[in-house]
């Protein structure tokens, strides 16, 4: 369960009837974990012990007044939005509440739609503030809380590291996520990382929307009832049902028809949908993550993508850099892919010539990491020498590797080894130190060393 899901909505009023009415209304509107208090003296102790997302507060109460509580809450818990409810509907009271820091002011008897709308807006503000605090902590700390969620994404690039931190910050939210980036950069891997970090119990379900007409999209996403159309011999659940309590990943979302976009918009806005041919309204309990390699600004200008759908999708958004902007990852990726592919083929893991990396640094990579994987797969399959060279990569122009100049005077390596060490000695030393600092955690040690975890595991076994 996410941190946000564990927070309470606290309603405070000295009239039990109002507490019951508000609690039932919010619960019926899918507002979770509503807690009521009729004694205003219990509010501050409750806030000190429990995690609270918003407070709904009566203004006139015995013991501790709403005014006194508002002053304390805005001072001691400035991140918690406070919605004030009162029968005193005069302008002076309303202005005074807002000046003291109230999020909203509702006059009794409160219109149910107005109350629910106010609470939902306050929850959104609370959620955004919570994510901003988490993201700020990550940026200052620079540590990943869930490194295992990113094990399949090999990188030491700063932009990618920033994306990992952003994912950890937004993972507890159930708001939609939009991932943009060129073909082959790993958008689905990152979507899966969002799912894994969130800790939800439901599955990760993926759908590529490219080439789906409105009928196919609707049937695949929403399902159909028996007899909905010719050939519908039985009821079928859609992917939204399959992804309940988990994540639904919609790839190539920019290809959706306008008719399909309207249906997806309803799911995002109302969290409701109908099976094809059915008038039974169903609830959507899946988080939506969408991805595309298209330019949404251009699509919206051309009228090919709805503005309202775009803004619903990008509650959280990040762009994945192309491989040409993270060339420092090339050696890691080549090594990682060569290791994995060799094991799949039952072949010895080949070493990689420095010329290969230098040559690939000048390659355009229109297909990004996916294209690199295919190139390495071909090279490993055809390699018979145990060393991957430029000749194993068809179409690759050989570029001689740069030879670094070694400055020996004052080199700190002499302080550690007593002489200029061999590569094997340095490698052994770095592995031992990384494992010591990581307290034996191979994932953390591999990240420190800038190598893939399977590579570190193999080297440890070889020692």
UniProtKB/TrEMBL annotation:
Modified-residue entries (4-aspartylphosphate), positions: 58
TM region(s), chain numbering: none
Protein name, as recorded: Sigma-54-dependent Fis family transcriptional regulator
InterPro entries tied to this protein: AAA+_ATPase, AAA_lid_NorR, CheY-like_superfamily, Homeodomain-like_sf, HTH_Fis, P-loop_NTPase, Sig_transdc_resp-reg_receiver, Sigma_54_int
Keyword Nucleotide-binding: yes
Molecular-function GO term, any one: ATP binding
Domain Response regulatory, residue spans: 8-123
One Pfam family named in its UniProt record: AAA_lid_14
Matches recorded under CDD domains: AAA
GO biological process, one term: phosphorelay signal transduction system
Matches recorded under SUPFAM superfamilies: CheY-like (SSF52172), Homeodomain-like (SSF46689), P-loop containing nucleoside triphosphate hydrolases (SSF52540)
Domain of life assignment: Bacteria
N-terminal signal peptide: none
Domain Sigma-54 factor interaction: from-to ranges: 153-381
UniProt keywords, alphabetically: ATP-binding, Nucleotide-binding, Phosphoprotein, Transcription, Transcription regulation
């Amino acid at each position: 369960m996410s941190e946000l899901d564990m927070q309470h909505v606290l309603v405070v009023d000295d009239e039990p009837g109002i507490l019951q009415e508000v609690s039932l209304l919010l619960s019926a509107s899918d507002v979770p974990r509503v807690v009521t208090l009729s004694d205003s003296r219990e509010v501050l102790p409750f806030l000190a012990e429990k995690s609270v997302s918003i407070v709904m507060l009566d203004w006139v109460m015995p013991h501790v007044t709403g005014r006194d509580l508002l002053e304390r809450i805005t001072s001691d818990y400035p991140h918690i939005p406070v919605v004030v409810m009162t029968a005193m509907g005069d302008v002076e009271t309303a202005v005074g509440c807002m000046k003291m820091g109230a999020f909203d002011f509702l006059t009794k008897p409160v219109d149910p739609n107005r109350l629910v709308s106010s609470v939902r807006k306050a929850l959104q503000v609370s959620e955004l503030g919570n994510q901003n605090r988490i993201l700020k902590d990550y940026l200052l700390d620079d540590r990943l809380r869930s490194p295992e969620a990113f094990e399949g994404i090999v990188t030491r690039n700063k932009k990618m590291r920033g994306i990992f931190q952003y994912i950890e910050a937004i993972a507890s939210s159930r708001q939609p996520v939009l991932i943009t980036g060129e073909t082959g950069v790993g958008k689905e891997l990152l979507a899966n990382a969002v799912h894994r970090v969130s800790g939800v119990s439901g599955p990760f379900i993926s759908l590529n929307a490219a080439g789906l007409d409105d009928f196919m999209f609707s049937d695949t996403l929403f399902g159909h009832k028996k007899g909905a159309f010719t050939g519908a011999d039985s009821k079928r659940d859609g992917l939204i049902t399959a992804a309940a309590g988990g994540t639904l990943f919609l790839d190539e979302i920019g290809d959706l028809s306008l008719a399909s976009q309207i249906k997806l918009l309803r799911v995002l806005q109302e969290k409701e949908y109908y099976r094809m041919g059915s008038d039974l309204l169903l609830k959507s309990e899946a988080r939506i993550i969408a991805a595309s390699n298209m330019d949404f600004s251009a699509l919206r200008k051309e009228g090919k993508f709805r503005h309202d759908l775009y803004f619903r999708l990008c509650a959280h958004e990040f762009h994945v850099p192309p491989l040409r902007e993270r060339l420092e990852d090339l050696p890691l990726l080549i090594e990682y892919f060569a290791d994995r592919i060799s094991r799949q083929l039952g072949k010895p893991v080949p070493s990689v010539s420095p010329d290969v990396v230098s040559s690939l640094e000048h390659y355009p990579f229109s297909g990004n990491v996916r294209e690199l994987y295919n190139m390495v797969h071909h090279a490993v399959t055809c390699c018979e020498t145990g060393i991957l060279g430029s000749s194993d990569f068809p179409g690759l122009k050989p570029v001689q590797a740069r030879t670094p100049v070694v400055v020996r005077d004052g080199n700190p390596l002499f302080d550690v080894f007593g002489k200029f060490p061999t590569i094997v000695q340095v490698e052994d030393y770095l592995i031992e130190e990384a494992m010591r600092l990581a307290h034996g955690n191979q994932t953390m040690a591999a990240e420190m060393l800038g190598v893939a975890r399977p590579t570190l595991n193999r080297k440890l076994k070889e020692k």
